[in-house]
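Hey, I'm writing a tutorial for new members on how sequence and structure tokens pair up, and I'd like a real worked example in the thread rather than a made-up one. If someone can provide the structure for the chain below, I'll link this post from the tutorial.
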Amino acid sequence: MLAVMLRPSFPIRTERLLLRPFQTDDLEALYAMQSRDDVTRYLEWGPRSRDEAQQMLDRLMRMTAIDDHSNALRLAALLPSSGTLIGDFSLWRVSHEHNQGEIGFVVHPDHHGHGYGTEGAALLLRLGFEQARLHRIMGRCDARNVASARLMEKLGMRQEAHLRENELLKGEWTDELIYAMLDREWMAAG
């Protein structure tokens, strides 16, 4: 098995985004995003208080690499022109043995519909496949979250499963969609 190492140089620029580790001064922007019902609707957790957002930020700031000591890379996405934090992008190593990862993404609703989610998530796949040398990367979403499912399809990920009522989310049984891509599929699409 290959050793998985991902310690990017920051910041990382895409065509329209600047991605970097979360910082102490991101609290207000993170809270503004995580305190919204429309952001947390399909997530396991509900709107966060300022104290909960601070606790989360404290954890996020330590997620800067995938190596022998850490399994998560969590990046703040900013618009370079204004410095506005518009999203939260994640890559986790979910299995050492099977060399697999998972992506996650949240974009502030004020910035939906501009392709920022696709751009940031494509960066995660690139980092995961080309730098961390993961074999398979998956993404999951509530089946009602059509926008997230579409985003993963745009990335070239294929739907592998539709799990019926597999999670009790905020008191309601919900379906979950699982998408994935293999390293060779990423390289072939490149």
